[in-house]
Amino acid sequence: MTDTAIRTSRPDVQELDRLVVRFAGDSGDGMQLTGDRFSNASAVMGNDLATMPDFPAEIRAPAGTLHGVSAFQVQVSSEDISTPGDAPNVLVAMNPAALRSELHRLEVGGTIIINSDSFNERNLDKAGYEANPLEDGTLDRYTAYRVPMTSLTKEVCKDLGVKPRDAERSKNFFALGVVSWMFGRPTAPTLEWINVKFGRRPKVVAANTAAFNAGHAFGETTEMFHSTYRVPAAKLPPGTYTSVNGNTALAWGLLAASQQAKLPLFLASYPITPASDILHELSGRKNFGVRTFQAEDEIAAVCSAVGASFGGHIGVTTTSGPGVALKSEAIGLALSLEVPLVVIDIQRGGPSTGLPTKTEASDLNLALYGRHGEAPLPVVASYSPTQCFFAAIEAVRIALKYRTPVVLLSDGYLGNGSEPWRIPRSEDLPDISVEFATAESLLNGSGDSSVRPYRRDPETLARPWIVPGTPGLMHRIGGLEKEDGTGNISYDPDNHELMTRLRAEKVERVAKDIPPTMLDSDGLADLLMLTWGSTWGAVTSAVKRVRAAGGKVDHAHLTHLNPLPIDLEPILRSYAKVYLPEMNMGQLAMLLRGRFLIDVHSVSKVQGVPFTAGEIADLINGALND
Amino acid sequence: MTDVSVPQTTRADWTSDQEPRWCPGCGDYSVLSAMQLLMPTLGVRRENTVFISGIGCAARFPYYMNTYGMHGIHGRAPALATGLAVSRPDLDVWVIGGDGDMLSIGGNHLLHALRRNVKLKILLFNNQIYGLTKGQLSPTSEVGKVTKSTPMGSVDEPFNPVSVALGAEATFVARTHDMDRGHMQEMFRRAWEHDGAAFVEIYQNCNVFNDGAFAAITKKDKRKSMLIDLEHGMPIRFGDNNERGVMMGADGQLRIVDVDDVGVGNIIVHDERADTPTLAFALSRLAAGPFLPTPVGVYRAVESPEYAEQVSRQIAFSQEISGPGDLDALLRSRTLWEVS
Ligand code: SF4
Q: Which residues, at least 6 apart from A375, have a Cβ–Cβ distance to it below 8 Å?
């Protein structure tokens, strides 16, 4: 029952190190936005945080059904954290379906804030509840608050001239108001944001503001809630911070790369979940000189990027696994032409259409081997949302310097997840500029006036980048095998073997030009946790937890999957046990076992959701006691 | 526009050091000569000219032009070329491909390059057969065609490339054939002058796998009676003595008639700049195949905003209203907070 008595005593305030809140509701309930606003207010307070949106593949799944549930999880902390948390402490459930699909995640004894208005027969039925869970004891193990959010929201909107139907749509702001009060989040950032976001629609501003304030006041004035909580600011390195998700950071990284290379960016993409946001972000940044091209298909996207690279731009294409599969032949062309190209794969569950909105890291083999013929190329992987910025610069750097396609792997979890970011200054970013060939630079001193488009740099083995428009260097290149040096078509057996080896050697030489393995070691452990990609987050948290309890474990992380850092093999050999958790069936583990004959222990998870720190901590403890 | 500062060149300057490798007698040779001879007359620089091709016999073309060139992958030449043309509007980009390359495996890219109106000069070498893979059915082969892959005759309805291009919103569509260098050069020149996607179908003889596919209309003694020369603003007439013409019947269909029977006033006047492609499309359907009187020349040439130019304009406009991109400002464009 709703308790709306007016408060006469102050609730007690409890201090927490960390807090995990999960907002869940119908797809149309605005849960992503609500979660995002809560995160933002927490960031402004100085908490460290990590978020994980979890939404259905359908755009408008039937209202009230289980598969229409959209959720957003955030962990806010007074410490440096690297995951959106394991079991939520608080669940906001806007309807019966949300309660039913999310309740199992909540920690026992956790808090549930429920929109009780939505628990009518129809909605209960749609969620598959035979009895009302608010009344049958289902919630006995939790602290449940039943708040009539819909009716209270309609009530405060009544005098604003907002139609009841429209008013109902503001109920997520009521929920946000309640939660903001409960966890002592500042209200100003949210109110400001409402004004900016909906400024052109004054009635929407009024309704959302009223709902948010009413929710906040509801917490403050009713005696329903026994306690409120505070999560103090984290001790983060000083600086100016903002909050971005991985896809935005990646898009900005491409702009940064363009600036640092002093070359225009050409981004060609075909819409695909979960990568489209990069195209959206960059298409709104035309003042950076970026040309964005929504191609007719994935193949046209990669081909036009190759065409742009041939013309001296930074050709980039963004996609997800199914798109990489389609681009395979054209990536091989770029590899054979030896022109720069960056292919960005925001991985999702596969095969085929698979799980478009769920995360996985199962395209590593595709990135490494997914082409016909001997076609090695450099592969870079991001490991946190904000690292996507630097990974993009690194991928472009390698592509430009070595005139090669590079695959950059991110995933849906990183792409949609956000975290605070200490903003770098562009003057601290690396200079990644390269030179185009000119008649003087290419022909000089050779005493030979014939253009040799495959005359390689002796150190990097990169061929010259000769762009059309350069006088005196007209030449023709293609996907047929070429003679080294001249680039003329050649079917010569020895030349083909030479070119195959040169292309491989060129990629291998990148190893001398990349940072060493990221190693977190206290020098005493026998167990090494090895990671690549977004698994870094859960393992980082888990390693901290295990160490805090006295366990000895080290953590090594790979940002480059091809070539591998030179120090990796000796590192792996120096541990008695190496565990490698991957969101696939052991793709990197297989490679390392084959390459180094080291008994890397593979741990797989392919459920469309990332590893939790708890799972990894259990794994580590198991391995230590083994 | 002819640039007077461009040095005079000759055919030799436009000829690369690579020996063409087509079969002796292939129609591709005459297209190549037409192009190499045309180039010095256009007043363009070799370094600003790029030929991009897919895969097939015709796709070897770029290797023989002393310009920049890319021999791409099967079907993708229009997409490769779009990337280049959009990023480098200063270049002249020619796209070369055959009927299989551009209408089968790469059909999608052709359609979209045309409808976007990217400034590309697209030459489709139509020989109605797969040559490089040694003689299979192509998407322009006639119904009933016996080939290695259709021993009982094909049951596939062919494409009419001019109809396809017009249907894809092309702003410049022409047809020519490999037996008439002057006509080819005139069509290539018109394509080069067009500010947008220019599509030229070339009836090209594959003397090895489909010899004489166009002979009924392109042989010297047949041309006057079988090729209908389209000329803007002129009544559409042909025949040894110009005695035949094209008329629109009461049912709206185009018909070939004797001029004397209907009077010259009833012969339709060609309008390549018509607002709608209706008449051009009707003309493209006049002949069921290259064995009946067939229109050649420019079917359609209309002005429409060019793609790369609009892309560049949006960039300029966005820089005008927001100022040139400032990375540091962008990174600080969202909610900020200080940690001290
Ligand atoms: S197969 Fe036909 S099209 Fe190809 S080169 Fe020979 S004659 Fe020409």
A: A331, A332, A335, A503
